[in-house]
Amino acid sequence: MADPPIQIDTMRPDSEFRISDLCKLVESRFTIADVQRIYQAYLLAAEAHDGQRRQSGEAYITHPLAVARIVAIDMQMDAQAIMAALLHDVLEDTPVSYNQLANQFGDEVAHLVEGLSKLTNLDVSKAEAQAENFRKMLLAMVSDIRVIVIKLADRLHNMRTLGAVGPAKRQRIARETLDVFAPIAHRLGITSIKDELEELCFEALHPLRHRTLKAAVEDARGNRSELVSRIEIQSRAVLEEMGLKVDVFGREKNLYSLYRKMSSKQMSFSDVYDMFAIRVIVDSVDDCYRALGRLHNLYKPVEKSFKDHVAIPKNNGYQSLHTVMQTNTGVRVEAQIRTRDMDRMAQDGIAAHWKYKTGEHDTPTHAREWLQQVLELQKSVSDTIEFYESAKHDLFHKEIYVFSPKGRIFRLPVNATPVDFAYAVHSDIGNHCDMARVDRNMVSLNTQLQSGQTVQIYTDQSRSPSPMWLDSVVSNRARHAIRHYLRTMNDEKAPLFGHRLIVRALAALGSRFEDVTGENLDRVLKKYNYADRDTLLLNLGIGNHIPSDIAAQLLGENTDPAPAQQQTTPLLVDGAEGSVVSMAHCCLPIPGDNIQGVISAGDGVVVHRAGCRNVIKRSRSRSSDWVPVQWSNNTTAEFTTHLWVAMRNRPGSLARVTDTISRLIANIENISFSNSHDSLTEIQFILTVRDREHLARLIRQIRNLRVVERVHREPLN
Ligand code: MN
Q1: 60 CA to middle of ligand 1, Å?
Q2: Which of 577, 610, 508 is nearest to 549 (CA)?
Q3: What separation in Å is there between the alpha carbon of 93 and the centre of ligand 1?
Q4: β-pair partners for 282
Q5: Is the pLDDT assigned to residue 686 strictly greater than 60?
Q6: Alpha-carbon span 480 to 388, nearest angstrom
Q7: pTM of the model
């Protein structure tokens, strides 16, 4: 209802809309030369698409013209964008070439159209093609944001005319729109397009639910119009009394947001719809807070409903105060209070720049940050389908707000952990984060944070990122930084480790690295196509080769790897080697256990408990990739282990056990419940301990608890 009055011309249905109408509507904004070029673009498109028809039977050119109309009138974009909208399908579907476009309309227009064209002749699956095109579109968008605005207009028109396509295709397009395009419109703050896309998708995906809800709203609307206008008038009166220059609008929620609220919060139609919504527009930020105070005086605010998106804008730049109040007759009123500028931003988002500023293309900060994230994501994820999935996830991110101990506010994606928080503060804090305190409690590093919590990170310079963190972090920033660290760490440590492995393997054959002849070394390097000795050592370090095999080759033996390994001195491990030595997930060894190392391609040495079934299985097939390992005498790292505790079902049982664990300074990383009988519950704890002695002490103390029936470490299987 806050929309500006609509001119008669723009109401004309698409089927009767002509290029002359478009030119007339933009005449006042552009030079004559630009209007002429828009007309030329239309002529070229019309000629190129001549004879093509849409599913509805209409001439194809009606589609680009309708898209140009949205771009020109609703989005108020510049002349190049309008030309590109008219031409957006010619590269993909007609013989017109890039050069032809560049010659006639300039590089900028040609570039935009290129960005809007799908890759054709991709020799891949449908899912891969979709993902590949998505990546291309996002990259084109990063280099010119107008690409995505035109793409959204294109999608909007296709959704408006979706009735003509078959049911299967209709579902697929609506699904993709809801998964990808509506969230992009949301991230760029283009609310008008986002709302309409969601509405159309809802109708296409759930026609029956849409029809029912629509009828219910129309039914209820009549009954409440009087009430709404009374609330509007009352609110406006008290605000004007204060001398504020104010607009108050009654506001209707769109069907899709009603539906989403009903299904996500399990609310009934009357619960959701009984909420009246008003929007209050004032002149300044100061006035926003004054108006809020006055309204809270008029109606009783509902506890915990106030949100200050003025002080902390949403990540798409949206700013507004939100509150819910109750009138003395018990009616709930939801109010949004914001300035005129904020209101424009809330409606048009990034498009507000073309609409209200002087034709400049500078992208607002929040959108630039987001584009930057897209770019970083694309760099860190090489697999196309994974990129599509991560980007989809990223577009959908809801967010939480947490505080540093000094009261700084951080915005994080929902499900963020203390590690995400640590990286948001500084990558150095992230790289060394050791423990976290949330409000008053110490928590494990994979705990999911909630809005409003205060998070404190304790760092330890000897700590470094663990590959396990990748399982729980959700921010791109943290994921990117951890991957980067692990990669550079491999580069630094792997060659040294590879050196240790090869020295040991050579010793087993009664030789030394210094004794290897240059000739033999060169032959090995050449065989594997390595540039130098260090590359060989690096690949040994990350487990791409079996050391005894390389050792034999370095000594000029072309025979099978020697079975002489038994005599070798074991490799010392301390758990702090980083990703070149890792503890096997199947048996989770801790210092004090008898252990056995296995070389695994790409993962370096994986340490198992001796007797682990996976080691035995492997030893039958190939003995060559074994490495004898032994714990070093001074391990300092923490090791993950599983503990099973069967406890009586009494109130407070679990707390007694967890207290005991934390008193012994073992970190609980996860808990899962398994067999629950009437009187006993069996719980699996995943926790970190220093060594067997630490674990034994823990087991003893837990066993002494009266509520505990049995306790044991996860047995080898
Ligand atoms: Mn199109």
Answers
A1: 10
A2: 508
A3: 10
A4: 339
A5: yes
A6: 16
A7: 0.60
**Strand 595-600 versus strand 626-627 pairing type:** antiparallel
d(CA 121, ligand 1 centre) in Å: 18
Residue 470 tokens, joined = 């990748």
Closest CA to 538 of 606, 483, 608, 489: 489
Say how far apart CA 711 and CA 246 lie, in whole Å. 68
DSSP state of 213: H
Query: What's the CA-to-centroid distance between 64 and ligand 1, angstroms?
Result: 6
What is the CA(138)–ligand 1 centre distance, in A? 17
pLDDT of residue 393: 67
Centre of ligand 1 from the C-alpha of residue 88, in Å? 6
Ligand 1: centre distance to CA 396 (Å): 24
Asked if 161 contacts 54 with a C-beta cutoff of 8 angstroms, the reply is yes
At 178-221, the pLDDT tens digits run: 888 998 898 888 888 999 999 999 999 998 889 988 888 888 77
Place of tokens 């409690």: 441
Residue pair 303/357 in contact (Cβ under 8 Å)? The answer is no
pLDDT at residue number 321: 93
Q: How many CB atoms lie within 10 A of CB 479?
A: 21
Q: Would you say the C-alpha torsion 221, 226, 232, 235 has a positive or negative sign?
A: negative
Other CB atoms within 10 Å distance of the CB of residue 69: 24
DSSP state of 73: I
- Tell me what percent of the chain is helix, strand and coil, each rounded to the nearest 5: 50, 15, 30
SS3 of 610-678: CCCHHHHHHHHHCCCCEECEEECCCCCCCEEEEEEEEEECCCCHHHHHHHHHHHCCCEEEEEEEEEECC
Question: So what's the pLDDT on residue 360?
Answer: 47
Give the confidence band of 320 by pLDDT, cuts at 50, 70, 90.
very high
User: Locate tokens 């159209």: which residue?
Assistant: 113
Number of H helices, E strands in the chain: 30, 21
pLDDT, tens only, 417-462: 999 999 999 989 999 998 889 988 888 888 899 887 889 999 888 7
Give me the helix-helix angle, 62-69 and 19-26, nearest 10°.
Answer: 20
Distance CA 328, CA 58 (A): 56
Active site residues: 92-93
Q: How far apart are CA 190 and CA 354, in angstroms?
A: 12
Q: How do strand 629-631 and strand 571-573 relate by DSSP bridges? A: parallel
Q: In the structure, what pLDDT confidence band is assigned to residue 109 with cuts at 50, 70 and 90?
A: very high
What does the alpha-carbon distance between residue 155 and residue 177 come to, in Å, rounded to a whole number?
Answer: 8
Nearest to 503 by CA among 494, 512, 495, 492: 512
CA distances (Å), 381 to each of 215, 385, 391, 479, 656, in order?
A: 46, 9, 10, 10, 44
Residue range 154-177, pLDDT digits in tens: 999 999 999 888 888 899 899 989
Q: Is the dihedral of CA 370, 153, 106, 87 positive or negative?
A: positive
pLDDT in tens, 584-643: 888 889 998 888 888 776 667 888 888 788 777 766 655 557 778 888 887 878 898 988
* CA 714/CA 717 separation, integer angstroms: 9
How much distance in Å is there from the Cα of 89 to the middle of ligand 1? 6
| Contact call for residues 24 and 134 (beta carbons, < 8 A) | no
